[in-house]
Fold:
Amino acid sequence: MIDKIIDLRSDTVTKPTDRMREAMMNAEVGDDCYGEDPTIHRLEALAAEKVGKAAAMYVPTGTMGNTAALLAHTRAGDYAIMDAECHIYYYEHGNVSSLAGIMPVVMNSPDGVPPLEEVEAYLQRDPAKFPRVSLICLENTHNRRGGRAIPLDRMDAVHELAARYGVPVHLDGARVFNAADALGVDVREITGRVDSVMFCLSKGLCAPVGSMVAGAADFIQEARRARKRLGGAMRQSGVLAAAGIVALTEMSDRLGEDRANAKLLAKALSQFDELGVRPETVDTNMVFVNTEPLGIPAADFADRALQHNIKVSVYGPTTVRMVTNHDASREDVLYAAETLVDLIKTF
Ligand code: TLP
Structure:
């Protein structure tokens, strides 16, 4: 058995790289609440430029970034349209309602893009009589829909419809660089199709902390006020931002390795037809396994995998998620694939 743990629970489990630790140690800092942290300024300018937006803001987490964006785009009592499986609705503890005062209108579609006819029906409602639809949220890559990359034409369709009604689109782009890698485009092709984007430095890009919100200058100004309301303004946070700069400049180009490793894992597991692993639907770094046909809950599968030093995440009663990442090499993933195949044969 391998003498270390191979952690495939998420791409958030990675440790900062040596280059990040060095940059953090040497970071020039100041009080960011006075606007005096030069490293924060550099990161925010770089992030805005990377995703082709006028401005960007650093936040500690993706959840806070999404909530700040919701607060900046909407007023309490408004509707925001989103997919039923999106992170904002599914995992963010009701921030959309409790902090932003928004009523989420959740819609269902297999690829996670709210169906256009249903969206338009809401947009056509008379705002004098009904709650105003003030935002549409998308997620790319879409976590709970298999880590799939939403194609540009699907994003176009939503953006075009929303623009016709003057409604902004916010992208939860926690893994937008994985989406860009999967679609083979510059990330701006994706972010150019939305009004605002949140993306994480701490997912596939290995930074220890931090996410960015990017959009128009007046939107970011509002988002900064929202960040204060959420208690998320920081002081000498340049020590953290320094790692974010390394994440953005050095780490996004390697995401193809994680995609290739996920494919490899999916191919190995696809020999068990009933588990529902289809390599052709693995667009990025996530592989989902249905443990129901094995007659065991996902938690038992995870326990058995851990006995072989492989950590997987329990994503539902009978759903296991594995996410390839920087700290799991091709060799590690090969070991995991072979070991899990042997394990599955024992059920
Ligand atoms: N996702 C985490 C868990 O919360 C599920 C993970 O391991 O995948 N948007 C998306 C699409 C996300 O997947 C996540 C985190 C977030 C937002 C929130 O980011 P953080 O954890 O930084 O608040």
About this structure: The radius of gyration is 20 Å.
